[in-house]
Design a protein that fits this description.
The protein is built from nine helices and four strands. It has helices at about 1-20, 20-40, 40-55, 60-85, 90, 100-105, 130-135, 150-160, 175-180, and strands at about 115-120, 140-145, 165-170, 185-195. It has a four-stranded parallel sheet with strand order 1-4-2-3, covered by helices on one side. Helix 2 (about 20-40) packs across helix 4 and helix 3 crosses helix 4.
């Protein structure tokens, strides 16, 4: 079964990467809309969370529309992440803008670049973060990830990330390697804030 899933995933990746980026974004949005209709469990979670955040300010119809758009955006982001993984820096450059202090892009020649730990949201095409070092060559990007249960699918996912030149560390097993990596100058470690499916999450006030 895992081998069949791998073949299906590889064929889907090849199809997505062969299409223009705008087509991929449209297909991803369509897939997200389908997921909204079929995935009742996550749809209920999304609606519940939106009501907790915006129930005082938004009408039920607005919350419903926001939940649908959220699923469309998720589909768009995943599809575009697969597509942009195969794109060169020259192909990506017209579609993205990296904004940072000037010293990130042009550090003083007599200074060693300072290492940075950045907390970023787990939303949007977050895989593009891994391309930052291509815009600021003085730095090396790194991040952590949690491997998939299926080894072949995990290898496929990591193969998509190699073009980024970012270092990926499996958070459960590669702590020592991550510590060694962080001792280098000019490192940017990106940590993605995430949610937990269980009851260990921390509820915080939301401000739009």
């Amino acid at each position: 079964m895992e081998f069949l899933l791998y073949l299906l995933a590889r064929a889907l990746v090849a199809l997505i990467q062969a299409l223009p980026l705008r087509w991929v974004a449209w297909l991803g949005r369509a897939g997200g809309a389908i997921a909204y209709s079929l995935d009742g469990r996550h749809r209920r979670v999304a609606l519940c969370n939106l009501r907790l955040c915006f129930g005082q300010d938004m009408a039920p119809a607005e919350i419903l529309a926001l939940a649908k758009e959220n699923f469309r955006r998720i589909g768009e982001n995943y599809a575009c992440a697969v597509k942009t993984a195969s794109m060169s820096l020259e192909e990506i450059r017209p579609h993205v803008e990296f904004v940072a202090p000037a010293q990130f892009f042009q550090p003083a020649s007599h200074q060693r670049p300072r290492s940075v730990v950045a907390a970023i949201g787990h939303f949007g095409n977050f895989e593009l973060y891994a391309r930052f070092a291509q815009f600021a060559p003085g730095y090396q990007c790194g991040t952590t990830y949690r491997g998939l249960r299926q080894p072949s699918l995990d290898r496929l996912l990591q193969s998509l990330r190699r073009r980024s030149q970012c270092q990926f560390f499996e958070r459960r097993f590669e702590g020592p390697a991550l510590k060694t990596f962080m001792r280098q100058p000019g490192v940017i470690l990106g940590l993605l804030s995430d949610q937990h499916a269980g009851t260990r999450g921390l509820r915080l006030p939301f401000r739009s």
